[in-house]
Design brief:
CATH topology: Metallo-beta-lactamase, Chain A
Mean pLDDT: 94
Number of domains: 1
Strand order of the largest sheet: 6-5-4-3-2-1-14-15-16
Structural class: alpha/beta
Bound molecules: zinc ion
Distance between the termini: 22 Å
CATH superfamily: Ribonuclease Z/Hydroxyacylglutathione hydrolase-like
Shape: globular
Largest sheet: 9 strands, mixed
Radius of gyration: 19 Å
Number of strands: 16
Length: about 325
């Protein structure tokens, strides 16, 4: 069984009811974290315990994580990585972990020769590019020689253009990861995850992006999707603002679900100002009926018979959600 756990649905900053981006995917070959914003480990620990207490047959286990995939280096998507890795050290983890993030060739070259120096103005190198952040995080983790260390494979993906990028080596057996460049003002990718053998299940997580990503279509992705997790920061009346800031509306997300032939759309990354996300759902469903505006704690269960169920948390347990409307 494949379960996709949505652990943060707010864009930019947390609200009282929503946290910033972070997802946990469990597959038969191990688990993957996709984006890891501030406070991610706290949420995942609570989620793991809550699932353990509830006999719904779904679990999340930090020890099973084999890879962390990052979509871009805005802090609401990656600022939880270092404390999470520190905890893994404290917990005595020994299993290897792969961390993958997008960058540019220019940033890789600059860091190679100039790491530690101030970045020249106008160089186009982002001070929080993963080429720089990965080095910093690595040195934090390796600094204390007394501490337990586990092997980390730091993988930078140089992005150039919009063609899907195939990884040279795959961290999980029977799982194929590809990075799909998106449009967000800084180097950014979505992650296409194909799981399994003969009946492959395919999930795409958009990260932050504006509409009309060149490779978000059936032919570039070489087949339909089971689940598309797409940002929908705003609804259509703010479409200009969405485009200006490199974000999408609910309608844009639904259009991407149509273009990629996705069975189910899960919308995330809502502007903290938005109170009623039912408007998102209604807007998206005009184009794509199986569209859900996600809540923190939602679990998409992708069954072997191709059925996808959304389990939603209510009080202290999870219940199948929204049968009638979809
Ligand atoms: Zn964001
Ligand atoms: Zn962003």
């Amino acid at each position: 069984m494949i379960d996709f756990h949505v652990l943060g649905t707010s864009g930019s900053r947390p609200t009282g009811t929503r946290s910033v981006s972070g997802n946990y995917l469990s597959t038969p070959s191990g688990s993957i974290v996709i984006d890891c914003g501030e406070g991610f480990q706290d949420r995942l620990v609570k989620h793991e315990l809550d699932l353990k207490k509830n006999p719904i047959g779904i679990r999340a286990r930090i020890s099973k994580i084999k890879a962390i995939l990052l979509t871009h280096s805005h802090f609401d998507h990656c600022w939880g990585v270092l404390p999470f890795l520190k905890t893994m050290q404290l917990d005595g983890r020994t299993k290897p972990l792969t961390i993958i993030g997008p960058t540019t060739k220019e940033a890789i070259d600059w860091v190679e020769d100039n790491y530690g120096k101030p970045i020249p103005l106008g160089s186009g190198i982002n001070p929080s590019d993963f080429s720089i952040l990965f080095r910093e995080w690595k040195s934090h983790l390796e600094n204390n020689s007394n501490q337990n260390k586990f092997p980390i494979e730091w993988t930078l993906i140089p992005v150039d253009g919009y063609e899907p990028i195939q990884l040279l080596s795959q961290p999980l057996p029977n799982v194929h990861l590809s990075a799909i460049p998106t449009v967000h003002g800084i180097t950014s990718v979505g992650w296409l995850i194909s799981i399994g053998g003969s009946i492959s299940k395919r999930i795409l997580i958009s990260g932050d992006t504006t509409k009309n990503v060149p490779s978000f279509n059936k032919s570039s992705l070489k087949g339909p999707l089971d689940l598309l997790i797409h940002e929908a920061t705003f609804t259509s009346e703010l479409s200009e603002k969405a485009e200006k800031h490199g974000h999408s509306t609910a309608l844009d997300a639904a259009k991407a679900a149509l273009d990629t032939n996705a069975n189910t759309l899960g919308m995330v990354h809502f502007s903290p100002r938005i109170k009623d996300i039912e408007v998102h759902e209604n807007e998206a469903r005009k184009l794509h009926l199986r569209s859900m505006a996600c809540q923190d704690g939602d679990i998409f269960r992708i069954k072997n018979d191709d059925k996808i169920i959304l389990m939603r948390k209510d009080k202290n347990s999870w219940f199948e959600h929204d049968n009638q409307r979809t």
